[in-house]
Amino acid sequence: MCLIAFVGVASLTILLAAISTSANGATLPVLGRGLLVVKSGSMSPSFNAGDAVLVRRLDTPRTQNLNSGTVVTFSSPDNDGLLITHRIIDVKTLGHAGPSYVTKGDANELPDATLLTIDRVVGVVSGHLPRGGYVLYALQRPQILGMVFVALMLAQTAVLATRMTVPQTERGSNENHQ
Asked: Which domain holds residue 148?
């Protein structure tokens, strides 16, 4: 049982590190969601720099209705597609073009200068991991990833060694008294 848990944790650690090094900015695509690292304080106190946000991709962006108050991740029109996570504060309907959205970071005084169109929306934020971005960035460094793997191996070896050195009768009597 412990060996299965160890293999699972080690595999997840390696998977996180391998995938997070791709896609420019620590993205982990899992079950239609992406794990992105917050790099600024524009959404503070909701999300702080170093947090990770879980973004649910839009299945069919053209038919999605996004409401005021929804936190979305979108590509910046001004900064080579940099991903930005801000809150929708207003929905504008401009003729037949469909809705456009006024977005703003919670900590920003003014709304974003450019209206957001649905084609630039990457997804809707469905959760966040406080300080989770630091873990993703740390796992991108081979030295830290190696140390985590060695630490997991040593911990598993210690557990297995302890189980082999404790006599069966002693293990059985300890388990019965608990």
From this structure: 1-21+140-163
